[in-house]
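Troubleshooting entry. Yesterday's outputs looked truncated, so today I'm pasting the complete records for two proteins to confirm everything comes through intact. If either block looks cut off, that's the bug. Protein one:
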Amino acid sequence: MPKTSPRISGFTWIKMKSFLLLLALFLLLFPAAPDRVESDTVVCRKNKNICSTLLCPLFYSSNGTCYDGKQKCCARWNLKNMMQWFRKEDQQ
């Protein structure tokens, strides 16, 4: 004799459908998203740097990106940066 699957009563079927509908609605209203991350442009501007399209201006060095990697984030040179650059040149 073949096994038959147990029948689900009408009330249980309605509860299951309503649960799935509520779950789908909940996932649509509150999608699982990572914490908000600041864009590279915002980080560049907060550090008082500028965004440049091709090359950084004179006395600026590239230290990141802007506009999702389409531009360079340029920081103004200071004495500390210049000394590090000269030390790198001497080591090579």
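Protein two, checking that the full record survives here as well:
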Amino acid sequence: MYGYGVEHDFVVKIGVLLLVIILLMFFFNMIMSKWFNVKGKNFFSLNYVNEKHKKMDRIIRVLTIISLLVGFAINAKRDPGNWYWFLQPWSIIYFSVLLSQIVRGYMEKKYDSNPNAYKLTISETLFMFILVIVIINTSFLGLV
């Protein structure tokens, strides 16, 4: 039915999509942790390698918030058809997460006691971004 609003099973489809993504990330993390012989990281945890890493991560977060606000201010003045794609919230957050993971991988390579910890971080980041690209290009795995 094509009416006003979302379909009646929209919440179920989004729930299934989120469940699939979380399970894929969990199993990928579990397999790669064993492969690289690294203790698995917890989801949604902030484990900094050292104080320098903590400071750099905070700088990235502050710059992300500033970029979101500036991007909103600039795009709000423009016609919706002419918005800058690099000032859209999804692209700012996408690049922020990528930069944060690159910094984490660098800090793990340079300062972590486990020489394979950075490999796990880089492989998780690559998997996550490939997963995002696949989900977007397949219209959310055919759910939309």
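Both blocks look complete. Sanity check on protein two: The mean pLDDT is 88.
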